[in-house]
Write a structure and sequence with these properties.
The chain has about 120 residues and is α/β, with parallel strands linked by helices. It has one domain: Hypothetical Protein Ychn, Chain: A (3-Layer(aba) Sandwich), CATH 3.40.1260.10. The chain contains 5 helices and 5 strands. A 3-stranded parallel beta sheet has the order 2-1-5, with helices on both faces. A two-stranded parallel ribbon has the order 3-4. It is globular, with a radius of gyration of 14 Å. The two termini are about 20 Å apart. The model has no long low-confidence stretch (mean pLDDT about 95). Belongs to the DsrE/TusD family. It is found in: Cytoplasm. This is Sulfurtransferase complex subunit TusD. InterPro entries: DsrEFH-like, Sulphur_relay_DsrE/F-like, Sulphur_relay_TusD/DsrE.
Length: about 120
């Protein structure tokens, strides 16, 4: 069964951590799943977020999974998150998309919804 994890919760939310936990479990079981970061969930892809040394870093935890990490480009740009290409296109001085994450359009979310058997939103 293929699962789509739609992550709309801010990285400071417990729901964002539950999404990671489910992704880790699915990954360990070699079950088919995809993720998509949307709305406030895109903030996990901001490399400029500071996390104290005594706390787990959600961004790094997602990166450790070594899976595709698609982020809604519109939601990201609206929240001050950009990759190099979009920074040039929109005349933004700096880019701050964390390594391993990629900005994509909502068309890919629509495809993922259509091709998944189960959608879970966090």
């Amino acid at each position: 069964m293929s699962t789509l994890l739609l992550i709309t919760s801010s990285p400071t939310s417990i729901h964002a951590w539950h999404a990671l936990g489910l992704a880790q479990a699915l990954h360990l079981k070699n079950e088919a799943f995809r993720v998509f970061f949307y709305q406030d969930g895109v903030a996990v892809a901001n490399t400029l977020q500071w996390v104290p040394d005594d706390q787990r870093n959600l961004t790094k935890e997602w990166q450790k999974l070594e899976i595709r990490l698609p982020v809604c480009v519109s939601a990201a740009l609206a929240r001050g998150i950009s990759d190099e290409e979009n920074a040039k296109r929109h005349h933004i001085q700096h880019y701050n998309l964390a390594e391993g994450f990629e900005l994509i359009g909502l068309g890919e979310l629509a495809d993922a919804v259509q091709s998944s058997e189960r959608l879970i939103q966090f």
